[in-house]
Amino acid sequence: MILDHNQLTSAGDILVVDDSPENLRFLVEILTHSGYRARPAINGELALRSAQLKPPVLILLDIRMHGMDGFETCRRLKENEQTRDIPVIFASSMTDTEAKIKGFKLGAVDYVAKPLNAQEVLLRIATHLSLSITQRQLQTMNSLLREAIKRAEYANRALLASEQQLTAYSKNLERLVLERTRELDEANRKLTDLSEHDALTGLANRRKFDEVWQVEWLRALRQNSPLSVIMADIDDFKAYNDCYGHQAGDACLQKVACAIEAQAQRSGELVARYGGEEFVVILPNVTETNAWRVAESIRADVEALAIPHAHSPTAPIVTLSLGVAGSIPGLDPERDASDLLAEADKRLYLAKEHGRNQVALPFRPVATLFQRVGPLEGNPADRSRDGAFSHANHASKISNMLTVCK
Ligand SMILES: [Mg+2]
């Protein structure tokens, strides 16, 4: 790097050391004349003090001096951290090689011979000053570069750490979202469960029944398949509550609910608490005849529970009355879902009117809609259409009658 004169002269003081006042004057004069700032020192001690007090940019050092000579002065300058990097140019009348080698070994950068030639002195000063300044600039640049690399490395590490933190944070967030979603799903499921089920019996509630009933009706219509419904009501339940209390009433409802549910376990079948002591069973893909069989099984199962009911005018135990209605919606355009339900309800009340603890038979005319069903090992006699059937031949009788009705 070549520096211009201004850069050289403005770099700082040049320390001129010589025990000859004439030489000193001469050197200070040529340097000042060339634009440099020159600082004189008449011996080695003063030179060291001056250099430490305010380090010059270059030292022109006489070798032969009274007291401390130039070599010793140079050695001490190089010992001191503050002054060791200042370029030293020896000036002496000594021309032997050994002296030069000694000077270079002590750390001098150059050598000018006495008598001093102004032009040579100025040229060597310019050269070494330029080198020294360039070296310092390079050192500064190097140092800045190292600093920049350190900062970049630090930033990189920080970035990496941030990325890791961000990834961890993101994963944590994902986990939390998943957890909350699961909790929300669970809460929603519970809410749906609560909104669709009867708290006492655990059966579907009226709302759920209405929904499923419509769905099943439309499915049966679409698939041209049969659909049946059973309405069931506990006989004389008010008397039961009055006699045994509401807690026992609740327990009774639960037992009856279980018995009904046990008879409607096939896929798509639904048992619901329709209200109070009334239950309803949806039987998709079940004909009215088979629905009647299911209803009769329910009635028999509840009877078999033998829950005491001392104040029932029907029997000394809890009994059920049931109404059944079935249809193939596609072949029965006159009726809709609510008609079929109303029919089952109507038959339930006919069963009540005709003595309770029975399934009203699903055939017309009304006189034949209900049949008293006897015990399983009851009277086998087939007395009449509106009389009592034995369990053993009941199903075939009903089938025959239904065939006639259709
Ligand atoms: Mg001298």
Automatic annotation (TrEMBL):
Which EC number applies? 2.7.7.65
Output the SMART domains linked to this UniProt entry.
GGDEF, REC
Q: Which UniProt keywords apply?
A: Phosphoprotein
What InterPro entries would the database entry show?
Answer: CheY-like_superfamily (IPR011006), Diguanylate_Cyclase (IPR050469), GGDEF_dom (IPR000160), Nucleotide_cyclase (IPR029787), Rev_trsase/Diguanyl_cyclase (IPR043128), Sig_transdc_resp-reg_receiver (IPR001789)
Got a GO cellular component term for this one?
plasma membrane
Q: Where is the signal peptide?
A: none
The GGDEF domain extends over 225-364
Which cofactor is essential here?
Mg(2+)
PROSITE patterns per the UniProt record, alphabetical: GGDEF, RESPONSE_REGULATORY
Q: Name one GO biological process term.
A: cell adhesion involved in single-species biofilm formation
Q: Name one GO molecular function term.
A: diguanylate cyclase activity
Q: List residues, modification 4-aspartylphosphate.
A: D62
Protein known as: diguanylate cyclase
Annotated source species: Candidatus Methylospira mobilis
